């Protein structure tokens, strides 16, 4: 269930409170991805981000794998479904910086403004997905929620169609997308043609049996 709700306030924590929460967090970690508190009060740790991208991303051809369409030195590339990436960040990193780091890690050339980071959490036996603002701090959210990803997880998506900043796309990117859509449309058309051809053969066979002289 996607929701657009009021942002939860970022409660100020003292250094001692942060220390206590980090100790509690680390005691519950099962994958060795612990947090570290530095002398200056900034803490570092890890977050996992699920990549739920429906549209192709633009990467350098030498880095691409999977289903793609080439254009000069760049490739329009579909990330595999269920892809999860782990990032090491600090408590000062914002959502926008996390998005930029993810794209850099995947060698993505697309404008970060095309993407949004969501948090997915469980409340009252329901799953809620809420888009985070660019200024929120994912590691703080991770610390407060604890290490269990079933309680809180992060998801990277494209902006909704109505929110897409089409001016952020380059002409080659848009041309690549059109080529991919044309290819997929043709593939679906061929599948439909084969399906209805099979139906027609079965109907003709059935009709032949009905009208066959006894």
Automatic annotation (TrEMBL):
GO terms for biological process: signal transduction. Its main location: cytoplasm. InterPro entries: RA_dom, RASSF1-6, SARAH_dom, Ubiquitin-like_domsf. The keyword Phosphoprotein applies. CDD domains: RA_RASSF3, SARAH_RASSF3. It comes from Thalassarche chlororhynchos (Atlantic yellow-nosed albatross). One of its GO terms (cellular component) is microtubule. This is RASF3 protein. PANTHER family: RAS ASSOCIATION DOMAIN-CONTAINING PROTEIN 3, RASSF.
